[in-house]
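Here is an idea for our session: we take a single protein and study its fold together. Start from the sequence, derive the backbone structure tokens from it, and show both lines together. Once you have written the record down, we can walk along the chain together:
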Amino acid sequence: MIASTIGYQSKGKGPDLLIIHGALSDSSHFTTLANELAETYRVHLMDRRGRGMSGPQGPEYSMKKECEDVAAVQQATQAQMVFGHSYGGLVALETARLFNFFSSIALYEPGVVLQTQPEEWNWLLDYEKAIQKKDNRSAFAHFVQGAGHSPLSKLPLWYAKLMLRLFIRGEHWRGLEALLQQNLLEHKEVKRLAETYHHYQPLQAEVLLAYGGKSPQAVKDMIHTLNNTITKSEVIEIPQLEHLSPENRYEPLKVAALIKPFFNR
């Protein structure tokens, strides 16, 4: 099915629920989560622009366009519930802020930056330069270190690059490599929106803020700050999980089991 230039697939029966994937991923990474939730809901799994069933990001890419895409899918499906992961969680928050049509929002480690200094984004410039040189392995290493979700963040770049080359190969690497340019533009938006989390205070939806027990302390601090900011929110820690846990390769069933009670209210 197509809403504007944005593709999505639907499965299951029940109340409508939209899933928004994160950066360096697409709808195909969330099929296990979608299938599990489809036992209870009519699940709509979209591809954000720049991947899969959807059109390109476009020359004037912005968070506003992401929100308009979500709004188009919401209008087509009438989904009032949404699950967003990482950058998809930031998209969900921004969409809710602009359009206010979700009644329930479940977020797993949304890509919200609380406070920032200019030098903390040096990696983004290095990442962009590496892409321009078609040195995609170096670009990916800069991203992994800069994003701060990996123990590789504190190690020398050459070592991080070597470890990533050893452990991320074949089809897995080719999928990531194809999204490096999209990821660059998306993280420029993360940088632009840094320190604006207070804009989410007046959201009218019920918000669940979930995070993994193995995630960095900075992620946990972000979640609890959002909880203290958003009027109708609650926090859940899922033990033994990490940032990528909602994706197929990790622990999507555990994520589904803990967000279902929130949506079932």
Notes: The longest strand covers residues 206-212.
